[in-house]
Amino acid sequence: xxxxxxxxxxxxxxxxxxxxxxxxxxxxxxxxxxxxxxxxxxxxxxxxxxxxxxxxxxxxxxxxxxxxxxxxxxxxxxxxxxxxxxxxxxxxxxxxxxxxxxxxxxxxxxxxxxxxxxxxxxxxxxxxxxxxxxxxxxxxxxxxxxxxxxxxxxxxxxxxxxxxxxxxxxxxxxxxxxxxxxxxxxxxxxxxxxxxxxxxxxxxxxxxxxxxxxxxxxxxxxxxxxxxxxxxxxxxxxxxxxxxxxxxxxxxxxxxxxxxxxxxxxxxxxxxxxxxxxxxxxxxxxxxxxxxxxxxxxxxxxxx
Length: 304
Ligand SMILES: *[C@@H]1O[C@H](CO)[C@@H](O)[C@H](O)[C@H]1NC(C)=O
Ligand SMILES: *[C@@H]1O[C@H](CO)[C@@H](O)[C@H](O)[C@H]1NC(C)=O
Ligand SMILES: *[C@@H]1O[C@H](CO)[C@@H](O)[C@H](O)[C@H]1NC(C)=O
Ligand SMILES: [Ca+2]
Ligand SMILES: [Ca+2]
Ligand SMILES: [Ca+2]
Fold this sequence. Notes:
By secondary structure, the chain is an alpha+beta fold. Helices cover 21% and strands 25% of the residues.
């Protein structure tokens, strides 16, 4: 009888955790009450924060004893990691990226925090769990954290991000980013979401892209930027003149090479990055200016 109840509970728990899974590159940890991912490629603090944010998580801080324990389990021996604690808004006012003050039971490395040369606004954690302040521009590994939320559900695009929509005509999912970024950050955002800057492989897909653009009128975007272009996944790879997709194919090989009339025009100061107009016709565009962009995602990516 008890065994049966246990089995039943087990099944319920299994089904629930399958439903509520976040992404398969993150590991659930009871002590953290959520998912963690160790990011082994060192980044400066701002890039670390951004990558976690774009992955749908936050840069992890040892907010309490259990969270610290969970983070230390993921940290490699003798490696310092960045935490989400920072004073980049106001010197000495350390808060986690969730806005919480430093845990009052936190242990500090001897002599820390010392704001050495008035240049240290970010907190690291040693592999024994002690904190210190360091320069935010240096690079360290870090951990991203997604707190469990019973409302999160993966959709047909394999993500809890409800801005991804499946298009039956192409078998891909797309997200139109209305918050503008420069091309390299747009690339980063799509990758962090488990996708890539959209690659148009056919006229059918161009139609889908035009339809997605139509759902995002200029009035739906906040800020001062040109709202009739969006970055997509092609680039001149530093060889000005030839455009290849981010997968290295010529546009023709990829299946769609229709530029807008008069484009590519390499407008003044040079345009090396790929974009589309609202028509889904292609255009070359300034990489370092910020524009909307479109990510494409395989519904199976991020799903285990
Ligand atoms: C989706 O596309 C597939 C093949 O492209 C087709 O067989 C199917 O009928 C389509 N489903 C809907 C709902 O349009
Ligand atoms: C585009 O313009 C930039 C600077 O204006 C120039 O350096 C580059 O060679 C041009 N590319 C082509 C293909 O004309
Ligand atoms: C060249 O392309 C840019 C956008 O990439 C556009 O703003 C500009 O109007 C184009 N110039 C001409 C002459 O078509
Ligand atoms: Ca220090
Ligand atoms: Ca595609
Ligand atoms: Ca252009």
